[in-house]
Amino acid sequence: MLYFAYGSNLNHFQMKRRCKDSFFIKKINLKGFRLTFRSKYRAADIDQKKNSIVPGGLFEISKSDEKKLDIYEDYPNLYKKYYFTYYGKKVMTYTMKKKTIFTFPTERYLNVVKRGYKDCKLNEKYLKSALSKL
Question: DSSP 3-state assignment of 52?
Answer without folding.
Answer: strand
